[in-house]
Amino acid sequence: MATIKEVAHEAGVSVATVSRVVNKNGYVSEERRVRVVEAMRHLDYKPSAVARSLRRQESLTIGVLVPGIHQPFFAALAFVIQKTLFASDYRVLMCSSEEDASKEAAYVDMLLHQRVDGVIVAPTGHGSETIHPLLSRMPVILVDRDLPDLALTRVLADNFRGGYDAMTHLIALGHTRIAVIGGPPYSRAMEQRTDGARRACADAGVVLDSSMVLMSELSEFKMGFELALDLLRRHPRPTAIFALTDVVAVGVMHASAELKLSLPHDLSVIGFDDIPLASYIIPALTTIAQPIERMAETAARLLLERLKNGVNESFETVTLDMKLMQRASTAAPRGS
Amino acid sequence: MATIKEVAHEAGVSVATVSRVVNKNGYVSEERRVRVVEAMRHLDYKPSAVARSLRRQESLTIGVLVPGIHQPFFAALAFVIQKTLFASDYRVLMCSSEEDASKEAAYVDMLLHQRVDGVIVAPTGHGSETIHPLLSRMPVILVDRDLPDLALTRVLADNFRGGYDAMTHLIALGHTRIAVIGGPPYSRAMEQRTDGARRACADAGVVLDSSMVLMSELSEFKMGFELALDLLRRHPRPTAIFALTDVVAVGVMHASAELKLSLPHDLSVIGFDDIPLASYIIPALTTIAQPIERMAETAARLLLERLKNGVNESFETVTLDMKLMQRASTAAPRGS
DNA sequence: TCACTTTGTGGCACTGTTTTAATGATATTT
DNA sequence: AAATATCATTAAAACAGTGCCACAAAGTGA
User: Fold this and answer.
1) Tens digit of pLDDT for each residue in B5-29?
2) Which residues of B lie closer than 8 Å to A, measured between beta carbons?
3) Which of A305, B44, B63, B211 could disulfide-pair with B116, CB 3.0 to 4.6 Å?
4) Nearest CA of chain A to the CA of B49: how many Å?
């Protein structure tokens, strides 16, 4: 591939002049500028981002580290982040740790080697040591899952409130035998949703038996299916299930179909996230909508600000609101 | 961040020796090796991938360009590619063109600037000019959607056969008023599935009216929903719909629920891809399974081979088989 | 002992770009 | 006319590594 030197030679100028033309800074006469542009076109010159990164000591690359890119929530989040950063001329190295702390650590190490300019991380939640090496070297924005012991800027959803609202919705419909399932358990987001649900029960005087709160290692269809099957075979069975993610909720719906239960009359299901599928599955899933786009854009914007203004010592926490999306998967329990 | 020079100074050796230790090549006495390793640990040294890339003239980065990363099929494909390449020490720059040829071209340009070592591309299908600039400069592997006019290595699924099998399945159940919907129309994969379906009809003596073949610009829930609504309001309405992707099939299922049709008795639906959701949605979706993992791994492996052996002029085409997954969304038409 | 190989180490050129300092030319002010 | 800006350009020094070459010491075989 053509280098700046070849372009300079072709145009009969110095490399410095070509550099100035490429970067549109400094002084260069119109006549030479045209000659250079012509030479670049002729040689099909593309400036090397790697040489530029080395010289400028910035890679215009940022790392995005999520616990599972095939989870619709993180897929959507990561995609919007990528899109927002790309619009500001940043590349993204996408890393999915698969809920595995050692993979997370391996990706952090890789990002350090790559000399990324910053990182947006939704951590697994297995402790904060894995992402610690990043903090002293570059701006880091935390999203979705909190790690309370870290000093950095966060963008979080109000998970406690979301959990509270979900449970309150079920209670208001008349449910009293309610189960909560989801995971992974070390996710602070899941924990807060569960805490919110517990508080809602306490406030309403409803008993939330601890045998009705089940956590799975992953948030997948299969987990929701298996946990729900277990719950729905009990006597008496719960009349409502709060699934901590929409994906788990879909698994629950599958389990209830397997047992020939009809939704929402035999069982109410409420999810969490509001992924696109939620409004297309049948019955349409009542869920707590996370502001995924706003979370992603906010995280990207905060990172860009830090990159522009240099590392600032004042950290902030942005907390975004959730919204109940009432659809067809929840109703009053049969016989009430 | 510490440089190799600082490490060399700390260990009291030359940078060449440090380099040899880092890359485990050349001769280094055990005594010095230990001193160097100790200095690296002490200074928390991470070799700069960017400096190394510049000097070695290879970035260990490869571009993955898909038409839509939020489509479950491409998400799964891209993820397995990334995973496979990461295991061979390659980083991935993930690019989603959103079915937009100009974005595709912009990403290609970006990948050229980044000096990626190779690209795996599932093109939009809007002509081959956009990816043409890559061909002369690096190995490129094409997946999923063919561009027949290009000389390169391809990994394709047997879409014609898949379409043929899907339609044959519906015909064997006794359906004669069958519709085909999906998209985007410029995707050669979709075209081939449709052609396969047409051939199956011809072979079986079933008439596939062209008014029953509807293409949408995107493959999303919404498109399936809207097209199906249109079809199902006709008189007489089709008794079966072949959705060219599972995502579209979910939209079809939503539309049939909207019209209070019961699946599979009032309407049979068959999809294509076999995304994880297909077996969890209710009724479980009969579909043509694409070997997503094998496609991804094959593409990654072929690229790695080309990177290792230098650019070979002999291109190959790998075609993978599909498999009918018979589930609960298809049955004989009512009254037959 | 000589010729040759193996082992161990440092020096330096090189990768493609940006940027600083230096220099010259031209225009503007004293 | 001299001093001073302003404009235009180039040479050269980074940036952080790699890898070739030279050289030295030590080992090997005849």
Assistant:
1) 999 999 999 999 999 999 999 999 9
2) 1, 44, 46-51, 53-54, 59, 69-70, 75-76, 79, 82, 91-94, 96, 109-110, 112-115, 137, 220-221, 225, 250-251, 253-254, 257, 276-277, 280-282
3) B63
4) 5
